[in-house]
Amino acid sequence: MKKARLLSALVLSGAMAMSLAACGGSSANKPAETKAAETEAAESEAQETEAAGTAADASDLSNTLVYAGENESTINPLLTNHDEITDIIFSGLMTYDANGQPVEELAESYTFDEETLTYTFNLRSDVKWHDGEPFTADDVIFTYEELTRDENLSTSLRSDYQDIESVTSPEDGVVVIKMSQYDAAMLDYFTIGIVPKHLLEGEDINTTAFNQAPVGTGRYKFDNWDTTGGMITLVKNEDYYKNVPKIDRIIYKTVAVESTKATMLQSGEADLAWLNANYAATFRGQDGYKSWDFTTADYRGASMDMSSDFWKENADSIGVLNYALDKDAIVNGVLNGQGCTAYSPIQLNPLGTDPEADIYSYDLEKFAEEMDKLGWVKGDDGIYERNGQKFHFTIQTRDYEEERVDIANMMSNMLKAAGVEMEVVLVTKFDWQAGYNGFLAGYATQFDPDMAYKQFVTDASNNTMHYSNAEVDKYLEEGRHARTEEERKAAYGEFEKAYAKNPGVLLVAYLDGNYVGTSAVDGLDTTRVLGHHAVGVMWNIEEWTITR
Questions:
Q1: Which of 19, 243, 300, 436 is at a distance of 20 to 30 A from 111, taking alpha carbons?
Q2: 450 and 341: one domain?
Q3: 125, 126, 127, 133: CA torsion to nearest 10
Q4: Do 368 and 473 belong to one domain?
Q5: In what order do the strands lie in the sheet with 107-113?
Q6: Per-residue pLDDT tens digits for 244-284
Q7: Number of domains into which the chain is organized
Q8: Which residue from 246, 234, 240, 210 is spatially nearest to 129, judged by alpha carbons?
Q9: Coil/strand/helix, residue 496
Q10: Is residue 132 within 8 Å of 214, Cβ to Cβ?
Q11: What is the pLDDT, as a whole number, of residue 61?
């Protein structure tokens, strides 16, 4: 009943807003009799519309999905690279199919000229922006020029597009993208959502109001954002150029605290949520609920800030810490067995998984031997020291992410028992200026392994922890520019081995993507490998149904 009252209020307020928006036109200079007659007719029509609207709203209520999602501040594909909402509001030239392979979306077809390194996209002619304006090649050019030429654009995605030389339109409905060199992952990056030139030209993309009221071409349209109530409402795009979704409305609740999502499912305030493994376990077998377990490429680990003084002096001692971590215990304890131990940032990618990179085991004797080789000696307090410095570093962890806090605490306890102090600092939000030595991180390479490029190549656009390794740079460059899958797999295998020897992230585990919903929800497809925070679950949202 609580959910029904909440949704009824939302639907009625939406109906009132639409009714007010529909009122317009001027009555000036009209005879009084005419105005009176029009007023009476308008009132009669309004009553009929309200009666019809009530019936329609009841239907809408039964076909509304309430999703307990993540905190959001921006809905813009140029600024947000792992957002569930962005993927269903915007469309790219390409999209991903069930197997994570890029296929045509806004592009009806495309060709690639090997000799000139040129992609030619033939655009669909049946696409409209959500405000009714036609989608054109100018929108595509505008989007990619922002990504490649706007030096003020604050985005972690820039390195994905650095090989683009030019974007032009030789004729209506055709876009030509010329590359400066061959880039094996480029089709994947053409999946980025295209943004509307007519609304964003001349705007500061970083701060524009568009980021909180987006207009796309995708399956769902933005309706409103109740920041006080933490709700973003989307409605299905009736003019969508492919299969129009079956669910009329999505109410996306912005929820940070993991326990709150579970409580919302229990109380009927949400229909679907991604839960950590232990919360998900409490719903298994319960009447009225369903569970979906996805494979993800989402890992957890302590990501070290290589620009901090401690790691500038002690980067050679990150890898050895792996010997002191019982990762199986963390997977079985914190993740309730829903995951696997991690040794490589791309190990769950088909072009990764080189077993020769799995060079560490849980071995405290080996740990002590390697620490001795590195010149570390235990002090009287049992903590290792070198050059007058204790092996003590700080890792910030967001306090509301229970799973990460538990992982960090288990890591800290294991390392402390072995003679290393990893201090876990709980924060409300990450503070990159506070001088911490790293953070409890998550990342994923669920599609092409080149997704690791921008995170690990020296000075790349998402290399927030300032990692730098000449061998890693070499092999990630080779993987990006190699022409055959065999050559790419070889390059990524070498990357994995080079990274394992000198890591920047103390990798711990990969997570399964545990989703829980009410029995009313149907249509989720677990074929797709999901990304960071199990994002991508709505890849086939147009096929979902909700039956109350």
A1: 243
A2: yes
A3: 90
A4: yes
A5: 107-113, 118-123, 174-179, 164-168
A6: 999 999 999 999 898 999 999 999 999 999 999 999 999 99
A7: 3
A8: 240
A9: helix
A10: no
A11: 64
